[in-house]
User: Which sequence fits this backbone?
């Protein structure tokens, strides 16, 4: 949600209008690096992003952390 976000590039890669589409290949949007970009279904590339920002609230923001 909001702009910019990490969800929209996944939707753009799969075509933007049908969230069940899948694109095969190792793209930047392939978060789990399994060779397939998926927005919904199991496994998908959106859920790891949601887990990293807190999972239950999709509007959460996590700022970059430097060592």
Assistant:
């Amino acid at each position: 949600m909001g702009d910019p976000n990490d969800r929209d590039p996944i939707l753009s890669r799969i075509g933007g209008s049908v969230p069940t589409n899948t694109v095969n290949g190792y793209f930047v949007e392939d978060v789990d690096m399994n060779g397939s970009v998926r927005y919904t279904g199991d496994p998908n590339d959106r859920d790891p992003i949601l887990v990293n920002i807190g999972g239950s609230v999709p509007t959460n923001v996590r700022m970059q952390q430097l060592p």
